[in-house]
Amino acid sequence: MTVLILATEHDISVDRVVRALADRDVPVFRADLGWFPRQLTLDAELRDGRWVGQLATAHRDVALEDLRSVWYRGPSAFEFPVTMSATERRHAQHEAKLGLGGVLASLPVLWVNHPSRHADAGYKPRQLVAAASAGLGVVATLVTNDAATVRRFVRDSGPAGVVTKMFGAPAICEQGGRRVALTQRLTGSDLGDLRGIETTAHQFQSWASKREEVRVIVIGRHVFAVAIHANSDAAHVDWRADYAALDYERITPPDAVRRGIRAVMAALELEYGAFDFVVTPEGQWVFLEVNPSGQYGWLAEVPLTEAMADFLAQGAA
Amino acid sequence: MTTGFDDPLAPSGEQFPLARPDTAPPSWDEPSPPGSRPWGLRRMGPVMTPSRQGLGWGYDHEQQLATGPDGVALLDFAAGPPTAPTTQTVDGEDPPSSEDWINDYAPDEPIPS
User: Fold this and answer.
1) What is the pLDDT of residues B70-109, one digit of tens each?
2) What ipTM was predicted for this assembly?
3) Would you tell me which of A19, A147, B12, B76 could form a disulfide with A194, CB atoms 3.0–4.6 Å apart?
């Protein structure tokens, strides 16, 4: 039985798991969906209510019925030839998603994570409701496209202040490069010019005082927690802003938090999740978000590669 | 284990989220004026950490591993155990240093190649 890994070609965390699976004599078929259709072939037939057939490249193939698990880790988009018109490419992409994606998503194997659940979990407002329902602490959050409501929310939040952050990816491609906007505390000048709030939905949250932050990685039943101690002002607001100023410490979450984390995973039907928490000076854990494909490779304090390899090798129960 | 599409929140086109390809051409869009540009984008700044693009990485189909410019698996020439200060851009960090690895691209405009 084979582990199917759908990922880009350049992903060191995947490289580590590929090697760990090889060490366990577990067959692996790694592919990037950007290889489809020119370097990756699918043939699948519906027999007795399930899809049988194979995925193949010039280098290897795997039978769909021989898969034990699928690690869905951000494969890149299908690529179609320049000889197609833009309309034809859109058609081809949609057909590929519904056809190839539909076959794969129907396979009765362990998914880490299933792409549909991955997509659903990307909605942060839904995550916050799931977390609150699970008994986890959450911060006051505003979603709005109304400037007056933003000012009211800031007033109501008091002297601690308010941060703003994206719902989705914090980076865009523009002016020939990539640009990024991490979590930011609102200042008086921000509030003085809110032009553009009305153009789309924006997210604001009350500032949660931090003793430290914690990234929790959940792989199946395993919960790994690493405290992130920020040693610069920028990292104190958003630790992604200054990795060099971070210290890490493996910790054990309180039992109530662990139960809440498991409840969120169950509600969102995830097998893998990267949770971010703030721990307040009083020791209260406050849920910020869960990323269904969050990175873990730089957290050297915990055996995440081994845990992922073991989980994928185990397959569906 | 989940296999179904029961009660999805994401529309069908987004239920198979795909990442931005390395080969995607850069966008030369210019920011629109204040008032038109979404407020959240007005605080965008350049990415200060280097991109992995242009590093000469390759891929070994036999080993199924990323390789460096000399064809050696990246895992084999990374010196020492990974730690945060020394492995930015290649060690699976969250954005921005790993912002090439955004996983929810799901483009409406497929990339020609």
Assistant:
1) 888 888 765 433 333 333 333 445 554 444 333 334 444 5
2) 0.88
3) A147
The per-residue pLDDT for B81 is 38
Read off the pLDDT of each residue in A172-188 and give the average, rounded to a whole number. Answer: 86
Can you give the pTM of this predicted structure? 0.88
If we measure between CA atoms, which residue out of A317, A299, A312, A217 comes closest to residue A20?
A312
- The boundaries of the domain holding residue A191 are 140-206
Cis peptide before A145 (omega within 30 of 0): no
A72 and A32 assigned to the same domain: yes
Q: Does B17 touch chain A (CB under 8 A)?
A: yes
Domain assignment of residue A38, yes or no:
yes
**Candidates A3, A10, A232, partner chain B, best to mutate (most B CBs within 10 A):** A10
Q: What is the pLDDT of residues B21-42, one digit of tens each?
A: 767 777 888 999 988 999 999 8
With beta carbons less than 8 A apart as the criterion, state whether A157 and A206 touch.
yes
The DSSP letter of residue A202 is E
Q: pLDDT tens, A11-42?
A: 888 999 999 999 999 999 999 999 999 999 99
What CATH number did the domain enclosing A171 receive?
3.30.1490
Estimate the crossing angle of helix A255-268 against helix A124-133, to 10 degrees: 130
Q: What is the largest CA-CA distance in chain A?
A: 65
The total number of structural domains that make up chain A: 2
Rg of chain B in Å (alpha carbons)? 18
State residue A207's pLDDT score: 96
Do A7 and A109 have their domain in common? yes
Query: Is the link from the previous residue into A37 a cis peptide, with omega within 30 of 0?
Result: yes
Answer whether A264's CB lies under 8 Å from A274's CB.
no
Query: Quick check: A27 contacting B, CB < 8 Å?
Result: no
Which of A111, A116, A167, A270 is the best mutation test for B, with the most CBs of B within 10 A? Answer: A116
